[in-house]
Amino acid sequence: MQTQTRADDEQTFNRFLIVALQEDQQGLRTELSNLAASMLRLALDGGAAIEDFEAPWTQTALGLYGQRTGERMLQRTMENAGIMGTGR
To answer: Would you list the domain boundaries of the chain?
Structure first.
């Protein structure tokens, strides 16, 4: 999923984080729905089947995807702000 993540997927994740921090309940519901749709598309494009979403490993995989995406976005933000080096 990481290699198939597009800029618009990251923007969806970013909007979700922003409304969560703002405690905007209506916006959070909207962006959570958008984030779920984005993650579903990524998983299906990556070869997952609909029935895979019932398996416990799917929750773990989606959680790791969210964690790694968030970490990558935070790293890029800190680099752009000059707070941290590139780490590359």
So the answer is: 2-79
